[in-house]
Specification:
six-stranded antiparallel beta sheet, two-stranded antiparallel sheet, alpha+beta, 1 helix, about 120 residues, about 20% helix
Amino acid sequence: MRNAIGMAFLIFGALAGNAYAAGTEVCPKVSDIKSSAYTSDDENIPAPFNEGYKYTATANGKTWVGVTMGNQDDYLAKKYNLAAESFDGSICSYGGTKVVESGVTAVPYLKLKAS
């Protein structure tokens, strides 16, 4: 009986994971995302934490926008291997390969919101 219940949870988890991953097809392809230097105009965020990159893309008839701040890393660089990881209905989340250079660790994470 325990084996049957365990197997049911395993199958349910696998199916739920596949359904969740399939949603990333609506996310912009990484090759369609463009980046540019960005500085926030929010006076409550001090330099250098107000600096980073703005990411934009057009896909599936929508404009997608996101920003990263507080770092000098453009996550579109090939070394990060950025890829869509999840979609929640209006936000695509991207992740990639952790990179360590000169003792500094960068873990790529980017959210693009559709408008």
